[in-house]
Amino acid sequence: MNGKQLCVTKIGGSLLKDSKSYLYSAQKIKEIFIENGYKTIIVVSAAKGITDKLIEVAKGSQNALNYVNEKYLEIARELNSVKIIRRVEEELKRLKTVANAIGGGGVDLSIYDLLLSFGERISKILMVGALESIGVNALELHANDLIVTNENFSDASIDYISTSANLEKLYSSIIDNPAIPVVEGFIGATMDGRITTLGRGGSDYTATAIASLLNIDRVYLVTDVDGIMTTDPDTIKTAKLVKVMSYRESLEAALHGAKRINPKAFEPLEKFYSSKLVIGSWSRFGTEIVKEIPRELWGPKVVMNRSTQNMPYIAIVGEGTSTTRFIRRVLEVIDENGMDVLGVQSYIYRPSLLIYVSPTYEFKLLSLLHRELFEGDER
Amino acid sequence: MDRKVKIALIGFGSVGRALARVIALKRKIISSKYGILIDVVGVADSKGMALKAEGFDEYELLKLCELPRSGVNLFKPYAYQGVDLDVLYDNTQPEIHIELTPSEYISGEPGVSNIVYAIDRGAHVVTANKAPLVLRYREIVSRALSKGVKIKFRATVLGGTPFIETLMNMRSHDIEKVEGIVNATSNFILTEMHERLIDFNDALKRAQALGVAEANPALDIDGIDAAAKLVIISNVLEKPITIEEIYKESISGITLKDVIDAVRQGCVLKSIASFDIRGRKASIRVVRIPKSDLFAQINGIMNGVRIRSDATEVVFIGKGGGSMETAHSVLDDILSIAMEYL
């Protein structure tokens, strides 16, 4: 097997709600990858809502601890494997010991990260259980043995050299192994073995680091939407899928708060190997993110309303959106529609144009620009 | 052609699992480097066994590590309910017996019986369980000698370093004193008390949360584990003492005030194991150590031991109790037996 048949698949927490959703994801992994002769390394997030609950546990909430206990035990019981139930019980017991040590103080970030890590670790055990229950051989990898980070607890960065040495050691056993390896996202460990977490959305970062350090061509980021949309579909019903974006574009969109990709996820892709990111749901992978896009695909990709220090702004993201011609076009449209802007910000080296507007115009302008940029004939 | 070496792991807690993992990941590299292919043919814990005469493959070894505690009997289709060494040995013929059961210092069981059984069946023995050596060192070593098998135990003292091997090899020296920090858990707790200015109970809770201390930490904090290590050292030096003879001071009585008083005087508190060979005196004591002293720099889960002989002074510093480090020491013992005697 070579790198072309191997991919990385990250399963987001929004998809992992109950035993059915673990089994559904396992089934999809089987249908999409295994039955087509692909092998994939699975990166899992914590089940939906668990990380937030664990943050409450760190603040001393017994209710939140009970919730995590019940949620994970319920899923384990429904997967109906003595082995998985006992494993989850053991982890929950350890979680209780850790919660006990943190004592509600929450000052010591190393214990805090250790506490949060149970969300992903138990989720991994459940995913392996789900895969095995539908007849797929799976194997747990341990993020704390693989992903080496600095000591910046709660928002750690990956030490690529040490991590790559660990991954290479493992590579031959992954490749020759009949089983699907499953690793928890979001988690790493310092050189001396203390557990760290990679910050919100850190599972993407785990996935891209593994792929780029092992020269793997594709990373699937599976979530509950079909891909990146031209704008928030809850605000504007006509929002469309963005088919292709560059790293630069999606990084810029992420900086303005679009699709929760942790900006750090792009670092290994820029530095080592430029794997293609494929974003979508189990039913449709709508968006591809590649290192560079050809000139003919330049243009606006996403428009969204954000605010900074209570100043609303509309961000248009895409290669070419900071050119004079594009800015002029946008300003003309705004002017023709009788609106005024409070400020305009763009730099030629960044693929974005920010337009500050008064709150009264915010949604009107957003829908106008969306219509103009994405619903016209030229696209 | 690779020489195959069949081993059985008796005891499958954190060290056993770490060892299974290391073997799964390094077995091919070891075979290409040294021409020795390690086959794990049997694994046993308190409730059951998993046996495969031709040896578990890498995948199976890693899957074994995913079992719950005392869950080897769930490992289908290789599982057996209950432990019966006759069945294990008859079915798999292990050449090296790896004893990883927990240390129990009253009877030494099940370690003593397991090791004696292995020797009588003609298997070499590697043990990380200290208790059989602490209670029956002479008997076990002479039994092994008479049966022509080896017993190795470098994981038992300063498991992350080749301390025991070195001590055994200092044959021309007249060793006068061995002293130092030999218990990682108590050293971690003391370090936490000094660095965070927290009391003993909070430090213990942290140690338990981080997996440094066990749920029942008495062996570590009451100095029993450290004393056991001195007993093994004394036997290696052929000046045996018993564990009862050793004065043992627990760290559980140390208050935050004691720590602050020591720090004010430019010292730190350390639990020091000391064996004065000539005086035949051994103790585990909480001592004030000047901050400039070497032992004051050995913190957290690190261990450090000074060997003083009539000719020289040697110091060993290394991780004490980590399961990965211990597993590597056990594996080194396995390899040295395989290369020298098989």
From TrEMBL, chain A:
<dbReference type="InterPro" id="IPR036393">
    <property type="entry name" value="AceGlu_kinase-like_sf"/>
</dbReference>
<keyword id="KW-0547">Nucleotide-binding</keyword>
<comment type="pathway">
    <text>Amino-acid biosynthesis; L-lysine biosynthesis via DAP pathway; (S)-tetrahydrodipicolinate from L-aspartate: step 1/4.</text>
</comment>
<dbReference type="GO" id="GO:0009090">
    <property type="term" value="P:homoserine biosynthetic process"/>
</dbReference>
<keyword id="KW-0028">Amino-acid biosynthesis</keyword>
<keyword id="KW-0808">Transferase</keyword>
<keyword id="KW-0418">Kinase</keyword>
<dbReference type="GO" id="GO:0004072">
    <property type="term" value="F:aspartate kinase activity"/>
</dbReference>
<dbReference type="InterPro" id="IPR001341">
    <property type="entry name" value="Asp_kinase"/>
</dbReference>
<dbReference type="Pfam" id="PF00696">
    <property type="entry name" value="AA_kinase"/>
</dbReference>
<dbReference type="GO" id="GO:0005524">
    <property type="term" value="F:ATP binding"/>
</dbReference>
<comment type="similarity">
    <text>Belongs to the aspartokinase family.</text>
</comment>
<dbReference type="InterPro" id="IPR001048">
    <property type="entry name" value="Asp/Glu/Uridylate_kinase"/>
</dbReference>
<dbReference type="GO" id="GO:0009088">
    <property type="term" value="P:threonine biosynthetic process"/>
</dbReference>
<protein>
    <recommendedName>
        <fullName>Aspartokinase</fullName>
        <ecNumber>2.7.2.4</ecNumber>
    </recommendedName>
</protein>
<keyword id="KW-0067">ATP-binding</keyword>
<comment type="pathway">
    <text>Amino-acid biosynthesis; L-methionine biosynthesis via de novo pathway; L-homoserine from L-aspartate: step 1/3.</text>
</comment>
<feature type="domain" description="Aspartate/glutamate/uridylate kinase">
    <location>
        <begin position="6"/>
        <end position="271"/>
    </location>
</feature>
<dbReference type="GO" id="GO:0005829">
    <property type="term" value="C:cytosol"/>
</dbReference>
<dbReference type="GO" id="GO:0009089">
    <property type="term" value="P:lysine biosynthetic process via diaminopimelate"/>
</dbReference>
TrEMBL record, chain B:
<comment type="pathway">
    <text>Amino-acid biosynthesis; L-methionine biosynthesis via de novo pathway; L-homoserine from L-aspartate: step 3/3.</text>
</comment>
<keyword id="KW-0560">Oxidoreductase</keyword>
<feature type="domain" description="Homoserine dehydrogenase catalytic">
    <location>
        <begin position="162"/>
        <end position="335"/>
    </location>
</feature>
<dbReference type="GO" id="GO:0004412">
    <property type="term" value="F:homoserine dehydrogenase activity"/>
</dbReference>
<comment type="pathway">
    <text>Amino-acid biosynthesis; L-threonine biosynthesis; L-threonine from L-aspartate: step 3/5.</text>
</comment>
<dbReference type="InterPro" id="IPR005106">
    <property type="entry name" value="Asp/hSer_DH_NAD-bd"/>
</dbReference>
<comment type="similarity">
    <text>Belongs to the homoserine dehydrogenase family.</text>
</comment>
<protein>
    <recommendedName>
        <fullName>Homoserine dehydrogenase</fullName>
        <ecNumber>1.1.1.3</ecNumber>
    </recommendedName>
</protein>
<dbReference type="Pfam" id="PF03447">
    <property type="entry name" value="NAD_binding_3"/>
</dbReference>
<feature type="binding site">
    <location>
        <position position="130"/>
    </location>
    <ligand>
        <name>NADPH</name>
    </ligand>
</feature>
<dbReference type="GO" id="GO:0050661">
    <property type="term" value="F:NADP binding"/>
</dbReference>
<keyword id="KW-0521">NADP</keyword>
<feature type="domain" description="Aspartate/homoserine dehydrogenase NAD-binding">
    <location>
        <begin position="11"/>
        <end position="153"/>
    </location>
</feature>
<keyword id="KW-0028">Amino-acid biosynthesis</keyword>
<feature type="binding site">
    <location>
        <begin position="11"/>
        <end position="16"/>
    </location>
    <ligand>
        <name>NADP(+)</name>
    </ligand>
</feature>
<dbReference type="GO" id="GO:0009086">
    <property type="term" value="P:methionine biosynthetic process"/>
</dbReference>
<dbReference type="GO" id="GO:0009088">
    <property type="term" value="P:threonine biosynthetic process"/>
</dbReference>
<dbReference type="InterPro" id="IPR001342">
    <property type="entry name" value="HDH_cat"/>
</dbReference>
<feature type="active site" description="Proton donor">
    <location>
        <position position="229"/>
    </location>
</feature>
<keyword id="KW-0791">Threonine biosynthesis</keyword>
<dbReference type="InterPro" id="IPR019811">
    <property type="entry name" value="HDH_CS"/>
</dbReference>
<dbReference type="InterPro" id="IPR022697">
    <property type="entry name" value="HDH_short"/>
</dbReference>
